[in-house]
Design brief:
The complex is a heterodimer of chains A (386) and B (204).
Chain A: H1 4-16, H2 22-32, H3 35-46, H4 48-59, H5 62-75, H6 93-108, E1 131-134, E2 140-143, E3 147-152, E4 155-160, E5 165-168, E6 178-183, E7 189-192, E8 198-201, E9 205-210, E10 218-229, E11 237-241, E12 244-248, E13 252-257, E14 263-269, E15 272-275, E16 280-283, E17 287-291, E18 297-301, H7 304-308, E19 314-321, H8 322-333, E20 336-339, E21 348-354, H9 359-367, E22 372-377, E23 380-385
Parallel strand pairs in A: 3-7, 10-11, 20-23
Antiparallel strand pairs in A: 1-2, 1-6, 3-4, 4-5, 6-9, 7-8, 8-10, 9-10, 10-13, 11-12, 12-15, 13-14, 14-17, 15-16, 17-18, 19-21, 22-23
Chain B: H1 2-25, H2 29-51, H3 54-70, H4 78-99, H5 119-139, H6 143-153, H7 158-165, H8 169-188, H9 194-199
Classes of the chains: A alpha+beta (386), B mainly alpha (204).
Chain lengths: 386, 204
């Protein structure tokens, strides 16, 4: 809820631009019936306000004020520490995630004191659902959040990031079997393959890989999205998707192959080749191949961060239609998005969202563009024109 | 195209504001410095109206900010934060004026939400906030346009400004008109590309 202060400041600004709607005009006329408000308006119109505030800025220096403020904070009995400021560059993204979590923790421990937070979506956080590892021997192992899969030669292990073991296949297998790592909506997971190549799986994705690479190629199957850091080797590494293969020697890249949208492969370092039905495309770093629903293949340059940021805890959008953005959110937060106004789907947005934040932060950001509003019913989110 | 540009622009600005707000909430130094740059003079001018002199006004504003910084309060939006601080400054100014004793007597807990505010004090806060935002917009003008505007606000005539800056009276007039148009559009949020237009050379 906006405060009366916000409303009136807003009303003045709109009046200054000559942009009042009939409803606003009514409120405006009422306000102007009072002497104290009329005076504010006269000062705004005549330029008095602009002149005065210019003088104030000279009289009271923000920079000097801040120095004094810092001194007083240091001397304060209620000592509280300054926090380090962290830039929001790509390299700091992981750190920011941590700090963000720390901040939410910090603010949640103060709940009930005097926090004024409009709780619209009740704080839908990503679910952090555990993934499942289907082993060739028929076993199913839950790979909880914070766990990772390490595929030894003929032997699979599930361990915590600190190295403590949660599961190990009991016998070393001679024959090659296929294991499958399935990540549900709201989850993410990691696997180190037998050749030490590393794979990060995004929500709602499935990776099928052999317990040991044999033959001419290192071949795996992907449905959904994964980021690869492939260990350089003699044999090519091939990611098979429903829309063609991505073939590499040793590089890092992202493949996004959800069945219901265009497939993309984005190269970060090294070189990769896409091989579809009759089409072959070679990518340089920063390039992407995109295969549309209709099978159209195109190569383009992209902001890599937009496609690999998820692994470091950020979603980056550059002129992305709202419907596409929302599909990612559905996968990550496990919510259903309902577009009440069809034309909203195509609205392009540019921005930067932290993945581990709750969904409200993102929805509020969207709403603050003035283009749309939303309401939440349990895990269903309705989007509509304002 | 226009709608897209503004969307994109607003989105970026909002995102910056989010980071800034988060920094304030997390007590990050950089964010508080930015807050001082933006709000300090407006808050002092506001306090001045109740305590009567600049020195006491600065003292009240500083103490208010220190209290907020020490508290666990977090804000959901920048506007909420601004309003809270205006109101806290008002409350502390009254206490300051009444007792004349220094910071010990200032409200420790600041139950600012419960403070009743007379309409005049409220209008003063709105006035201060509008002035602050207006000045921020003026700061975005290209240098020559800003100079012309400031001189004209000081009451200089078009000819005087032209003489002082060594430019034609036509330039003064057209720049002034564009600047005001920019301010109106920018402040009311209907601004699209007028800044670009403002930068175009003047052929009159």
């Amino acid at each position: 809820m906006k405060s009366r202060f916000e409303n009136i400041v807003e009303l003045f600004k709109r009046a200054y631009g000559g942009e009042l709607s009939p409803e606003e005009r009514e409120r405006w006329e009422k306000l102007m019936g009072e002497e104290s408000w009329r005076k504010v308006w006269e000062d705004l119109e005549s330029g008095t306000l602009a002149r005065e505030s210019g003088g104030e800025a000279v009289r009271f220096s923000g920079a000097e004020g801040f120095e004094e403020f810092r001194r007083r904070c240091r001397a304060s009995r209620n000592r509280r520490r300054w926090r380090l400021c962290v830039g929001l560059g790509a390299a700091a993204a992981v750190l920011v995630g941590v700090i963000n979590v720390a901040f939410w923790w910090w603010s949640s421990t103060n709940e009930g004191t005097e926090v004024l937070r409009p709780m619209v979506a009740q704080g839908i956080f990503p679910e952090r659902n555990g993934a499942r590892l289907l082993l060739g021997n028929g076993d199913t192992v839950v790979v909880a959040d914070g766990m990772q899969v390490v595929q030894g030669s003929g032997r699979a292990k599930v361990e915590a990031k600190d190295g403590s073991l949660a599961y190990a296949e009991d016998s070393v297998r001679e024959e090659v079997v296929y294991n499958e790592l399935m990540v549900p909506v709201g989850g993410e997971s990691f696997v180190m393959l037998e050749d030490s190549s590393r794979v990060w799986l995004n929500a709602d994705s499935r990776l099928r890989y052999p317990s040991r690479f044999e033959g001419e190629e290192r071949r795996i199957e992907l449905e959904g999205e994964a980021y690869f850091e492939v260990r350089r080797g003699e044999r090519p590494f091939v990611v098979e998707t429903s829309r063609g293969d991505v073939r590499v020697l040793g590089t890092s890249f992202d493949v996004r192959a959800y069945g219901d949208e265009a497939m993309t492969a984005t190269l970060v370092t090294g070189r990769v080749r896409y091989e579809g039905e009759g089409e072959k495309v070679t990518l340089a770093p920063g390039e992407q191949v995109r295969v549309s629903d209709g099978g159209k293949v195109e190569k383009r340059r992209v902001d890599v961060e937009e496609y690999v940021g998820w692994r470091e805890g950020v979603y980056v959008f550059d002129k992305r239609p709202l419907a596409d953005i929302m599909r990612d959110l559905e996968r990550w937060y496990g919510v259903d998005i309902v577009f009440m106004t069809e034309e909203l789907k195509g609205l392009p947005f540019t921005g930067y969202v932290e993945r581990y934040d709750k969904i409200d932060t993102f929805l509020d950001l969207l709403r603050s563009t003035g283009e749309l509003t939303y309401s939440v019913d349990d895990k269903r989110i309705y989007l509509m024109r304002k | 195209m226009n709608i897209f540009l503004t969307l994109r622009k607003e989105f970026k600005e909002n995102q910056m504001r989010e980071d800034y707000l988060r920094g304030l909430n997390a007590r990050e130094e950089g964010a508080w410095k930015a807050f001082y740059d933006e709000y300090y003079s407006a808050l002092c001018a506001y306090a001045c109206k109740f305590v009567g002199n600049a020195e006491d006004a600065e003292d009240v504003v500083q103490e208010t900010c220190v209290r907020v910084w020490e508290s666990n309060r977090v804000f959901a939006t920048m506007k909420e934060c601004a309003w809270y601080v205006y109101k806290a400054v008002y409350t502390n100014s009254l206490l300051h004026a009444r007792t004349k004793s220094r910071r010990e007597r200032l409200l420790r807990e600041m139950p600012v939400e419960e403070v009743e505010m007379p309409e005049e004090a409220f209008a003063e806060a709105v006035r201060e906030e509008l002035g602050r935002q207006l000045r921020k917009c003026i700061g975005e003008l290209p240098e020559e346009a800003r100079k012309i505007l400031e001189l004209s606000l000081e009451g200089l005539s078009g000819n005087e400004i032209a003489g002082k800056l060594g430019i034609s009276i036509h330039t003064v007039k057209s720049q002034k008109n564009r600047s005001f148009k920019f301010l109106r559009e920018k402040l009311s949020g209907t601004y699209y590309l007028s800044l670009l237009w403002l930068l175009l050379p003047d052929f009159f």
